[in-house]
Amino acid sequence: MVNAEIGVIGGSGLYSFLEDVTEVRVDTPYGRPSDSLFLGEVGGRRVAFLPRHGRGHHLPPHRINYRANMWALRSVGVRQVLGPCAVGGLRPEYGPGTLLVPDQLVDRTKARTQTYYDGEVRADGAEPNVLHLGFADPYCPAGRRAALAAARAKSWDPVDGGTLVVVEGPRFSTRAESRWHAAMGWSVVGMTGHPEAVLARELGLCYTTTTLVTDLDAGAEAGEGVSHGEVLKVFAANVDRLRSVLFDVVAALPAEADRDCPCSHALDGLETGIELP
Ligand SMILES: [Zn+2]
């Protein structure tokens, strides 16, 4: 049976060594997700892995079909999503290797569809209502607690809270943009954490992100700024412990019957106009 309860959006390094992984191709009313879903078991939980950039990393952040990705996860039963991502640190003390679990988000993306409820008739004839959901606290409190505890248990002292600013990319920030982000008090900068977070909320899914700092952003360091090679190097050096922490988070997430966080009630009493998978 094709089902999962927890979704993990991240690279193939997270699931490639699991035994008994089932590849499932899923289509959605919003088109195809980034890749197949890869279903396997971690810590006694059924997990669906989705390579955010596709296998071989052919999709840049602004071309990812975020709506299809979140819909596909929900359609195989997923109700809680972990969306780890690589970020730049906006403060000198958040150097490479820092694990930060944000509690806030600033959206600086420019051209990404970030709602299911736009009143536009879909290709399949379904007609979503126009909705405005609360998003004051973008992340699942239960997921954040599990992530922080799992990191601490692995002696990877995490930064508890902070603001992730998500930029459009694919380029990195200018020095002026980076200094501005830092001056606003924001903590880390990335390209993929949004609209994943809000689309999860719109589907009543829990969403938690754990950010791994791979470099200091242009305004926070004195040198030439970020290079892609540098980012990959730090990511590779940390992927094993990131995976081990994520798997502990998966095991520690609440069972579906015990899920009672605000995200799980995001759609209570609302008429979406469309049937959720
Ligand atoms: Zn939640």
TrEMBL record:
InterPro entries: MTAP (IPR010044), Nucleoside_phosphorylase_d (IPR000845), Nucleoside_phosphorylase_sf (IPR035994). It catalyses: a purine D-ribonucleoside + phosphate = a purine nucleobase + alpha-D-ribose 1-phosphate. Substrate binds at M191, D215, L216, D217. It is an enzyme of class 2 (transferase). GO terms for biological process: L-methionine salvage from methylthioadenosine; purine ribonucleoside salvage. Phosphate binds at S12, R52, H53, T192. It comes from the Bacteria. GO terms for cellular component: cytosol. The record marks S173, H228 as: Important for substrate specificity. It holds the Pfam family PNP_UDP_1. The keyword Coiled coil does not apply. Gene3D superfamilies: Nucleoside phosphorylase domain. HAMAP family: MTAP (MF_01963). Belongs to the PNP/MTAP phosphorylase family. MTAP subfamily. Purine nucleoside phosphorylase involved in purine salvage. This is Purine nucleoside phosphorylase. It comes from Streptomyces atratus.
